[in-house]
Specification:
With 553 residues, the chain is an alpha/beta fold. It is built from 20 helices and 23 strands. Helix 2 crosses helix 4, helix 6 crosses helix 12 and helix 19 crosses helix 20.
Length: 553
Amino acid sequence: MSFDVKNPLIIQSDGTILLEADNPKFHEARELLSGFAHLEKCPEHIHTYSITPLSLWNAKTIGLSAETIISSLENYTKYPIPSNIIADIKEISGRFGKIELVKAENRLKLQTEDKFLLSQLAKNPLVCDFIEQENEEYFVKEKFRGVLKQKFIDLNYPINDIAGFTDGEDYDIKMLEIGRDKLPFILRNYQKSAVDSFIGNDNLRGGSGVVVLPCGAGKTIVGIKTMATIRKKTLILVTNITAAHQWKREILNRTNLQSHEIGEYSGEQKEIKPVTIATYQILTYRKDKEDDFLHFSIFNSQDWGLIIYDEVHLLPAPVFKFTAEIQARRRLGLTATLIREDNLQTDVFALIGSKKFDVPWKNLEKEGWIAAAKCVEIRVELDETSKLNYLSLQKREQVRIAYENKNKIPVVADLLKKHKGEKILILGQYIEQIDLYGEKFGAPVIKGNTKNVERDALYERFRNGDLNVLVLSRVGNMAVDLPDANVAIQVSGMFGSRQEEAQRLGRILRPKRNGSQAIFYSVVTRDSAELEFAMKRQIFLAEQGYPYEIVYE
């Protein structure tokens, strides 16, 4: 095959892929790579990707074979692909599904065409306690179905679980053509594709997996349509009470269900209904760290036919543990990003399922389904008082001083003046800092100890136009439906968290009634530890096609 030095990719023998950002084929190559590679860093001119086992296994589950990946790379590479990379792609991709988990006479059975491979893996100390050997056949108890899948991923042989699901109890859930808000409702094409991908077909098994869509693109609608397609009793797990209320409003508006059929299971109420919405906080509550989790019984309180994990990238570790025990239930994960800062992406893959559907954010922007957005990083000097002892401090102290740099205040004041009359969110990490900004600019502050009634009231005032500026702590990172918010000003964040960057940009991506562009400002201290974290946070946005404009104050 001939290669073209005008192409944008350089594939190196150490497994890295370099993508030229200034190349005319940059955008199409970036979209291609997003299907099977992981973005590592993204300075101005050269972006660096890596192909990981997890990225290849996810690609395999959505129908991207090793041959398809190699052929795609050949179409965009400047130089021949190193032979070891071709071999690695074939080897790693081929490991997914070599071992299958099937149902055989009401038992779970491991099967493979490579009998010797399975016999050797079954002896491994990581998995041998979960496998029962009978002659030359290998069986697994139902309660070990999830943990075995986790362990086989650790062995680099992810199991293809085709053992099926418990039906769950039927329940009459139907989507309305005209919502209760009197507006017609038509499922968008990508939402329909997301649901279809989860449900599955003859070529791709469904029933468990993750749908990745940007904030504002209608992940909740995908969940509700899935409920109405499966028509079973459903448990929905959400991040907080605000999210629970939003899910309930959408379900009531879009389906035939009545309020008494939808339960809230949270710190405030303990209702179990045919459709129940529970918060992660209540599920992980226990009186002492040595005690049992008091509310995990909800997973078995009904014959659920579907469990929906909202914001699955934030799923708490204890919920993973119980999810491992309910692998016979259909499981749908919804998220804007599969990035987890705790590196538990493999547990999402093993226990919730593979990535079933993803779409580049910029594609939805072009189609008008999410707002066009501009990202601007404003770099400011450290204030004179803090400079005096900054370098003598430990890094964590340096980071906090940089985040709370008082020179950010006049910059935010200028931005508020520039965008006067627009819908503005000021986003921060530290309570003292956001309280200061609320006081300086006369804006309400929403933080962890803000009562839910007060939060809901402030969000409603923002939505109906009584408020134009809100100051939010990390509680505002997710599940806040503020469709007219079009300016976000980030003054501090959770260190280098890419998932937080995605969530915060998502606060302003809902399409605007006036068609205006959304602007995401990040105010960062120059020559400080904060700048290192800011560069890491930008990686996610670059992967989605949002370059930062850098401005110096």
